[in-house]
Write a structure and sequence with these properties.
alpha+beta; 6-stranded mixed β-sheet; 33% helix
């Protein structure tokens, strides 16, 4: 075996050992005391839960890809029925009229099939896309507060009160108050 191949094999063995140790730490953290937890919030706990078991079992790197299966290559949005919306960007106090043009993928999901060597790719994590003609840009739903306009009466400003009365903002406010009470 050449010197470079041996060095690379040694590095890969170290990486595998470190990954295994990291997974052991995440697994132990799930049952640890609050003081010893690596992850102390719901989102991090969920991440730790997904990382605790080996997610790479059965895949030895480097891999040989014999084919690519693009499951949904269409870049056109889902739910393509255009609708007028009132939209207020999170970083802006002004409400605009926008056009919801559909839901676009934000990422790609990949899976590898070691038996066949095929890499499967799928569009994933769809989010509404809204064209704001006055600004000449597309804003994703997660960047703004928006609602469909079904009648002329609904064409009004999105107020701070509207934002504070959104269910997930109320939930975040309750969680923040509970955390403040514990401190």
């Amino acid at each position: 075996m050449s010197v470079l191949k041996k060095e690379l094999a040694d590095i890969n063995a170290q990486i595998e050992a470190l990954e295994a140790r990291k997974q052991d730490i995440y697994k132990a953290s799930l049952e640890a005391s609050e003081e010893d937890k690596v992850c102390n919030n719901v989102f991090a706990y969920s991440l730790a839960s997904s990382l605790a078991p080996s997610r790479l079992s059965g895949i030895n790197y480097p891999i040989e890809v014999t084919g690519v299966n693009w499951g949904n290559p269409c870049v056109l949005p889902k739910n393509r029925k255009c609708q007028l919306v009132a939209i207020r960007q999170a970083c802006n106090d002004k409400t605009y009229v926008g056009i919801h043009v559909g839901d676009f993928p934000l990422g790609i999901e990949a899976s590898y099939h070691p038996d066949s060597g095929v890499l499967s790719l799928l569009n994933a994590c769809y989010n509404p896309a809204v064209v704001i003609p006055d600004l000449g840009k597309v804003v994703m739903g997660y960047e703004a507060w928006w609602r469909r306009i079904r009648s002329e009466e609904q064409l009004k400003e999105i107020t701070d009160g509207d934002i504070q009365n959104t269910w997930y903002v109320e939930l975040l406010n309750v969680a923040a108050c509970q955390k403040k009470g514990k401190e």
